[in-house]
Design goal:
Arc Repressor Mutant, subunit A, single chain, 4-stranded antiparallel sheet, 42% helix, 12 strands, 5-stranded parallel sheet, 8 helices, globular, Rossmann fold, alpha/beta
Length: 239
Amino acid sequence: MEIDMKKVLVCEDEAAIRDFVVINLQRAGYEVVEADSGEAALKKYDENGGDFDVAILDVMLPGIDGFQVCKELRGKNGGLGIIMLSAKTQEMDKVTGLMLGADDYVSKPFSPSELLARVDSLHRRVSLAQANAENNFKEELHSGDFILNLRNRALLKNGETIELTQVEFQIMEYFFSNPGETLDRTDILRHVWGDAYVGEEKIVDVNIRRLRMKVEDEPSNPKYIVTVWGLGYKWDTNN
């Protein structure tokens, strides 16, 4: 895949909103493929050989909903950046999308600048990962029984591979670089999502929950990603 290619899949069934999103992305220099249903989005993803950097998925779609599309796309490509659009304010919609593998969410109504800031931030992370892979970047970080491969974004636990999303990888890289140190939510948010991020800190907690499901022996009783009450989280492999 070309590193400088900026290609986005937009799945939104409301034509007015889809046109609004597409026009603003195109003005910002993105190549856009649009779909009006979940089925169409999955078909166009395959027709384009999965050649996308970012997918923007509406939650409420006819037929296959955005959650299912997110799950299927994440299964096809762990490195794809995924942003969910939701007209609902319920916290559960946001949590559900993130737990299924989305990297971020934007609540409707949203401004063009807000959406573009989220897409730009996610695209930078995807591009960096692609550049590392294509440059055969092989550096590894070791921590206890874990190895974080910076080239293919994979986490190894006792030799077993754990696939990570872009966001999960960046959180783990931050943990590995600061073993035993308490990192507060604001620090994690700023490091992973960038200074310009305008979303909620709760996105950090949901991604931590998702990571625990992948790395912990007992996710409900974590020993590696430890909560430091009132402060944040720390990575600990010494217990």
